[in-house]
Each structure stands twice: as C-alpha cells, then as structure tokens.
Amino acid sequence: MSTEGVPLKSGNVLIVSTRKGIFFLQADPDRRNWELSGPVFLGHIVNHAVLDPRNGQTMIAAAVTGHLGPTVFRSEDAGRTWIEARQPPAFDKAKAGDTPRVVGHTFWLAPGHPSEPGVWFAGTSPQALWTSTDDGRSWASMRGFNDHPDYGKRTEDPQAGTPDGPVLHSILIDPRNSNHMYLGLSGGGVYETTDHGESWTPLNHGMATTSSELNIQDAETMEVAYGDLAWQEMGPQHDPHCVQMHPIDPNVLYQQNHCGIYRLERPGTTWDRIGSNMPAEVGDIGFVMGLHPRDVDVCWVFPMDGTDVWPRTSPDGRPAVFKTRNAGTSWERQDSGLPERGWYTVKRQALSVDEEDSVGVYFGTTSGEVWGSIDEGQSWSCLIAHLPEIYAVEAAVIG
Fold it and tell me: Global pTM?
C-alpha cells in the first residue's frame, strides 16, 4: 500500500503523531512562525513517526489502520510519499500448547547506530523488540529478548496495565558501541544489552516500584521503596515511562518513572531519585522528559497528578514544565505563557527538544495543542491548537 504525503522543505520540523494521522509543523529560520502541513494517514492512529537523523530524508511511521491493522510505513523522500512495509512486526504462529502472541500496535521507533545505515528498531505491544536491516521494509523478531525463557517474568500480562496495553519503549543505542543498548518496559523496568540484543540484564536498582503483589488496583496507589523486603528487581511492578541517554555523555541516563524521576551515571547500577527535590505540592510523577543536547545537567519534565485516582493531568490544574540545571539538585517552574488553569495530559513520546543554540523545547497535549519555547523554557507559545489527540512530538531537521 502506498500513500501520498506532503512536500516538506529543508530545516526544522516537528513531526506530530496523533490519533488521526501525522501533522507537520515547519519553522521559519528564527522559529517564530510555524506552518502546518498534513495530515498524512488521516483517520488512522499513528503512535510514533521518526525522521532518520543519519540522512535527513527517511521517515518511519508506526500506524494502526482501519483495514490493515497494525503496520509500519516508510518514506524515502522526507514525507512526500509513503509505502507500507512488506513485513511489519509479527510474532510467529504459536506452537501447540503455547499462548499465542499478536502485535496490537507498534509503539516506539528508533534509528540504529550511525555505523549501521538502514538499521532500525521497534517496540510493540505486547512487549517485544524488532529490528529492520533494510530501512524499514521488513522487520524481524529480536529473539534474545522476545523468546527468552524469562519473558513472562520480565514483561507485563497483555491483559493488564493501561487500556492500550503494556509497551516496549525507550530503545537507546550507545553512540560509542552499536552492541550496547537499553530499552524500557512499561511495566517491566529497564534492560541493558552489550551484545546487540542477544542477551539482556535488568537495570532497576534504586527504583521504587508499584505494588509487589502485582495487583493493578493496588499498583495505582501503593509504592514499594527500594530496599524494602518486598522489592524485586524483575517484574511488571517496575514502570519506567520514559528513559533517555544523554547525547554528549552516554554514561548518563535519565528516567521518568511511574514512581519518580531518576538519574544514573554508569558504570554505576543504582538509580538516584532526583525527583525527590521537586516541590512537594507538585511531585515527580509524569510521562515525558527532554535533555539539553549540550549540557549533561539540564533536563525538562512535565509533571502530572499522581495522587488518589492518578488522573494524569497537570497538578491542581496548573500546567508547567520544570527544569533542572544541576542534575536534579533543584528544579525551577517554567510556565510563562502557559494557561493559568489547564488539565493537560502529555504522553510519554510527546516532548522533544531541538539542537539550536537556544534550545527549543516542544510538547503536545491530548487535547490537540502543541506548545513551544525557543528560549529553553523561559517562555511558551501555542504553535497550533485543535489537532486530534497527540501521541508523539519529534523535533527533527530535514536535509
């Protein structure tokens, strides 16, 4: 299946994936004016769309279409035309006696290492890891994770968790070594490989968890501290929402978790809960996270209410981004230009940063607004409103 896209010019672009297709926001050179293009795949769910930074032209999109079901599309001309993958992610037919697994949707896309052009990785629901070596035309199971004997212990029951199902996300490739990767499981925790996915090790020490009983009702309200007798390193009680590797120092990882904001410096193996320094009335619960491209100590988060019924909206209906300049020792509220009152929800892929001298920070809401700051969060403006529910925002540069 092929689909007509939209012509996009060279320069900064925001790729906005929504419940009803992909939209593009293109900036003028000073990023003060933004032009809307699209939609592409109107009416279809697009969980994630990514531009390959290795060539500035190839785009991959993870979609759920009305008649094709879960699939992947690719564009070789920066979004002008799209072709469906001939082999999207799909599990093998179950053997007799085994529980069948069926891909519900592809959730996360990540370009491979710069030394491996054409290589991509994808995370799905149910939780599984996939790779393509032909620029997204076909996808194969990474069996070192998907078929591991402990798969059932590491991952979350597809019938449990959030309404859209448990997901594999935050696929991170070490720029120094293509064999070294991380991934996140929601729920399930953070895992690391040093052999290009043949084997995986949990990396969850220091993280608080949801209920050790693994009862979803309890998991919304109960937190088990690291070191508690009920704490376990493996299992769906771990719930990282977003994990990021710092681009200039891959030894530094940041994480927004169901149970707080964390930072880890490798080769250490114990996460530090830097979210404990957030204002108590705000807390450190949320989904998204963005890192400054050149300063290892700067990070942005968008807190959401994690109390009582876990509404997943701005605490007290007062939306704000919070920024740390010192690796989480302290946090500052950045809400200039944002509504005084607003119950925003920002999903885990819906905050992104660019690489300009004054870093741009952008986020999208489930109410269809894209907000941007071109002064590193000091002031905000609404770039577009009234889009469909936003799933992901990716800041990129078309070559």
Answer: 0.94
